[in-house]
Amino acid sequence: MGVDERFRGVSLKRTRQDVNDPLELIYTGTVKKARGRDVMIEATAMAIKAGVSVRLTMVGATPEELDYCNAYARQLGIADAVTMHGRVSGHAIPAYIAQADAGLCIWEDRPWWRFNPPTKLFEYLVAGLPVLASDIRTHTQYITNGQNGLIFEYDSSSLSRAIQVLWERRAELPAFKQRAFESGTPYLWEHIEPAFLETIEKMAIK
């Protein structure tokens, strides 16, 4: 239905103090296995082992998922690199996104997820976040690899490689973020509202 104005460009305001500052990755939404929970944590551990300075923040976990993810991060030795938050109001999401360098969109490739792209994808883009997206058509229709994001296969090794690529290209992050922002502009509610209202009016007339 379109992204709220509060998301517009919030990540573009973030400035990295040093080129070697940790990459800040964010995931917002349902936290569970089928939504890539374990893949994200494992990939973060693998990237750190490969020498990447990266931190993962997940927002939207249930109390059970909070416990699971924190325990799994400790098990993998990356507790300091994973920050978990429970469910929050949608009004709070822009503030979390504003602190990130890239957003994560990750779904198992299931038939029922091939038709309805996730809201977070458009929120990330409008905010100016390049998107690390799993290879499913509801992501790849909007994310162009190397332009406004990076595409990876749905497994921890592939996501880890994408994180490493982003780290290697970290000096390009401002340009990467600007391209993401520009590609997200059409999905602002103000650009979708006129067509939506016109459609509703036509239906009402019929």
Written description of the protein model:
The chain is of the alpha/beta class and 206 residues long. Helix content is 42%, strand content 15%. It is built from eight helices and six strands, in the order E-H-E-H-E-H-E-H-E-H-E-H-H-H. The chain has helices spanning 37-49, 63-75, 93-97, 119-127, 137-140, 156-168, 173-184, 189-205, and strands at residues 23-28, 54-61, 82-86, 102-105, 131-134, 149-152. Strands 3-2-1-4-5-6 form a six-stranded parallel beta sheet, with helices on both faces. Helix 4 (119-127) crosses helix 7. The model has no long low-confidence stretch (mean pLDDT 92).
Across the major sheet, the strand order is 3-2-1-4-5-6
Please tally the helical runs, counting DSSP H or I stretches of 4 or more residues.
8
Portion of residues within helices: 40-55%
Derived structural class: alpha/beta
Runs in which pLDDT lies below 50 for 5 or more consecutive residues are none
Amino-to-carboxy terminus distance: 22 Å
* Count of individual beta strands: 6
**Rg for CA atoms:** 17 Å
